[in-house]
Amino acid sequence: MSGSEEPRYILGVDFGSTTLSVKIYDQNADLIAASTVKVPYVHPEPGAVEINPDAIWDLFIDAVNATFTKSDIPASKIEAFGFSCQRGTIVLWDKQTGEVCSNFISWQDRRCSKEVENYNKAWLLKTTNVLGSILYTFLRQAKFLVMKILKYQINQASMKLAWFLDSNPEIRQAAHDGSLLFGTLDTYIIWKLTKGRLHVSDASNASGTGMFDPYILQWSAIVPLLLNAPLCMFPSLCDTSGHICDIDEDIFGAKIPLTAVVADTQAGAFGQLSFEPGETSCTIGTGCFFTINIGTYAHASIHGVFPQVGWQMKEELTYLCEGNLGGVGPSLEWAQNMGFFDDVSDTSDIAQSVKDSDGVYFVPGFLGLPAPFQDPFACAGMIGINRSTTKAQIVRAILEGIGFMFYELYRVVIDETKMPFHSNIKVSGGVTNNDFLMKLISSLTGCVIEKTQEHDVSLLGAVYLAGLGAGIWKDKKELMKLDRPRSYFRPDLEMQVKYLSLHKTWQKAAKRCTGWYDKS
Length: 520
What we know:
The chain is of the alpha+beta class and 520 residues long. It is built from 18 helices and 24 strands. The strands form seven sheets. The protein has a seven-stranded mixed beta sheet with strand order 18-19-17-16-22-23-24. The longest helix is centred in the last third of the chain and has 27 residues, at 391-417.
């Protein structure tokens, strides 16, 4: 920044699955100040993962104010505000009083697993798939694609909503009466920031719910009907980037312009500057989210990796194809609680302290197994332990299991999109600090792994989108000049040959973990 150039400030917030982060950047994307707090989950019953709305709102306000204090920058100096948030986390509330019907139900909540099975097996869904296939075959209209490929997944907001309404018929009736509002985390926060004046979501967050039609860019008329969930409680849709609203000045003491709202995985891809079709990016933290930019084309899923709206702004629309694994963080947390290591940052060195895992295989199925297994009833598992197995070998097996599952996702995404892709994968997230795992992923996929030194790529993506929406940066070419330094991991041929062979045995272990919790 030149001495005569007046600084311009952007506020970024990321409601992640583990932490709530707040940062202020200037127009050079230099960090000015930051605050981070842990997301407070509650677990009222087995399988339940909830967040108290009042608690997360208070934490959000306190963290933003703390960041203003640290930076010595008043709210009135903020020209743009963007936030990213975890998807699939839902809540319903009274449109008049603002009273919530429950805690937020997290995307990690597993209580809807039976609903997933029942809805997927129901004749109504099968009829919808067949009818959609026939209509699309003859009419070739995009609106019939969602009928053709529709399949429910445990981490989708659709299934959380179905389970909640099935469990609370009086709330379903209130929703049909038009007295309730539905939203993911972004919708509720915007509603609070505008003191109830605005009930919106952007297409990136909406497309992660399982109730949005990515082919016609509207809430699906089919899915809510199948779930008996009235469309009248769904939010309106806004652009990902652009002037969305002004935050009520009573909240932070000034009318801060909200100029971006985006889902965390899509924000991560944008923060990695994955702007061109074929560019791949991956966030590995609590979950593992692997995405490929597929441009203006929304593919029809076969194996369960669905098209997502990456971002929508003015005339630009970008789609992503995404595969995800929710069991990364839980696997490492479980291993730490079991005493296999004291600090997760030590796991790379521990894994490399032994030559192999001595026939031990680990399946990271704490939240079920995603594509290609598509099994919400799968369990986590470890097989091949013998009397001489050491802690180090178990740690290595856990990291190998995560690497093998990543490879499964990679193969499905690449196969489904059937398009030329860049041979570099841009990665971010806390788990990418594990050198052993990065070397393993690089060798399995045959791709160069680019690890950014930026810790909060989703937040940075929200900041980039907010800055574009406010005119602080005029286009993505300016953002490319702000790219962060990266470190690289390249495929090792010897490691590749070894682990592609071991992967075949790991697949046998994974299959033994499928269907474990299915009581039907």
